[in-house]
């Protein structure tokens, strides 16, 4: 089950992200030091304005003024150099952090159960890796160095203002409190809408992805106008959320600047009065006014960057919520391994704890009173029993929704049963590690999926250690070799967009070749011939005889002609096995299978 999205505080989000900072903590400390030095240079330069005015400008000491200006130039140049290196280091650190975050996100998402993807929009999943990661990256690149330097500047300026004149500084502190209140209130309000903005961006991305992939369907049913209206709804949701987010955050800057101008105006007037009445010297006032401006600038800078910062926090929250989703659990201890037998031949089998010998890998599968439902209160399968011996061909037939594909999903442990037991070579599949269980199975789905790469690479996906010759043998077994050789680049033909440059039947043949090359003792065909014409199907059946030899084969097919030679046919209806037997036995019973078969014949 997918966990509900949790709202986290800003500090909790930053704290959880801190583990990605630790490997680069020394570089981050160096960034803080360099930024701090840059900030201190600015503070020192501002303070030097006091003696420059009092000791050189007012007395008219030109020689001393030249030396003082030279010192200031060297100091500020040093600050520029430190700032440059600080920014360059931060760029590298940010990319290292984003690399680790993106890697961990992919690894976690890749390990989530199928139920998560069943309930999550594809666009949202993609948005985690694109939009959300990008917002975190922008926030790190822009805000970290700025905040480190701003902190030093604000604290240093405050200290120096107290040193220069305590009465004037009290009013500045009050103005700072007003600025902090404005930032806190607006930040809290805009954070909510930035989070909604990220969410609606993911929803909109998912809608666009679906529409781009379904262009043929959209055009054949003339649904461009309807889809445009749906797009407007999603786009409007994003517009409203973004407008509210930026409305709150955009008024923050002008309000903070206004408070800063009020503070500066008051300081000029009060300070000028004090100078006139000899309560303050001109150099001290000039330096103090510079500190007032220097005190306000970092706060203003932060308000200008608050959009990036809050968007980054919102993106980080969404990513962390993905990490909160539970990965596919696996308590299995039985592994698939190989060893030498008494005749020094390699034997592949199950390594069961507390057993000295391997259990031979044969492909015997048995269901005992299996119950299953995708939801706990709604059963899909009820009291399923079957025993598939090694080398047998088991077929599942029945109406759509009868539970045929669900049985296949249980063998792979894509989902776990609620009651009963499934054994593989006499071992409860819950005791077998999922990776090893799935390595012993090969699967061909109705909806084929081909990856970007050559035809050879796509077939070899079933066995990464297969040679080019083994790839060609697998292609010949599935009768894919003939059409592959007719392609301009043959086996090196590049496939893109799920193999759009091939026909549906050709894609299905490649998927079957990919299953054939795996060498697994159990072969599962889920509507594997649904996209193949009758002539190709006959060629495929002839070629697959060699692939299926000595294998346990599970077949799901709407074309009942493809299951006539099955050793056992199970007829499913509403999640229960209502009939079982071979083709001739079931026809003689004149029951549900007879109805399905004769009905199919009439339609042909």
What report would you give on this structure?
This protein has 604 residues and is α/β, with parallel strands linked by helices. It has a six-stranded mixed β-sheet, with helices on both faces. Strands 5-4-7-8 form a four-stranded antiparallel β-sheet, with helices on one face. A three-stranded antiparallel β-sheet has the order 1-2-3. A hairpin with a 7-residue loop joins strand 2 and strand 3. The radius of gyration is 35 Å and the shape is elongated. The two termini are 42 Å apart. The mean pLDDT is 82.
In short:
By secondary structure, the chain is of the alpha/beta class. The protein has 18 helices and 15 strands.
Q: If helices are DSSP runs of H or I spanning 4 or more residues, what is the number of helices?
A: 18
Range of strand content: 5-15%
Shape: elongated
Strand order of the largest sheet: 9-12-13-6-14-15
Distance between the termini: 42 Å
Number of strands: 15
Mean pLDDT: 82
Strand-helix topology:
Elements: H1 10-17, H2 25-57, H3 62-110, H4 114-119, H5 122-164, H6 166-213, H7 215-220, H8 224-276, H9 282-323, E1 335-340, E2 346-351, E3 359-360, E4 365-372, E5 381-388, E6 393-398, H10 404-411, E7 419-424, E8 427-428, H11 434-439, E9 441-444, E10 453-454, H12 455-460, H13 468-477, H14 481-486, E11 494-495, H15 504-517, E12 522-526, H16 534-548, E13 552-556, E14 568-573, E15 576-581, H17 583-589, H18 592-603
Helix pairs in contact: 1-9, 2-3, 2-5, 2-9, 3-5, 5-6, 5-9, 6-8, 6-9, 8-9, 13-15, 17-18
